[in-house]
Write a sequence for this structure.
């Protein structure tokens, strides 16, 4: 896992440094700084995710490839997902006009 901190968004609440002090420090004015290059060890992942989720201004973001953890769900019965879209051709059926 790798994280990024947007210091222009940070409002200095300090919650990140409370939850993950190994990865976040506070400068002289109370704004967060990332310690190191943003790479998070697997054993510290929960603490950093807690800091990320509890940040009131969403200044912390997880970056990198997550495809190994996500699972693509198959379409039910190979149904075309665009079959039920509202379009100009079926606007009378859906009840909208231009």
């Amino acid at each position: 896992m790798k994280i990024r901190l947007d210091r222009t968004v940070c409002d200095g609440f300090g919650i990140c440094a409370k939850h993950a002090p190994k990865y976040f420090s506070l400068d002289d004015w109370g704004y967060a700084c990332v310690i190191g290059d943003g790479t998070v060890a697997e054993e510290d992942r929960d603490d950093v995710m807690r800091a990320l989720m509890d940040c009131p201004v969403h200044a912390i973001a997880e970056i990198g490839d997550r495809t190994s953890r996500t699972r693509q769900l198959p379409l039910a019965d190979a149904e075309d997902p665009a079959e039920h879209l509202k379009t100009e051709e079926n606007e009378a059926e859906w009840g909208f006009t231009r």
Helices lie at 15-19, 45-54, 91-94.
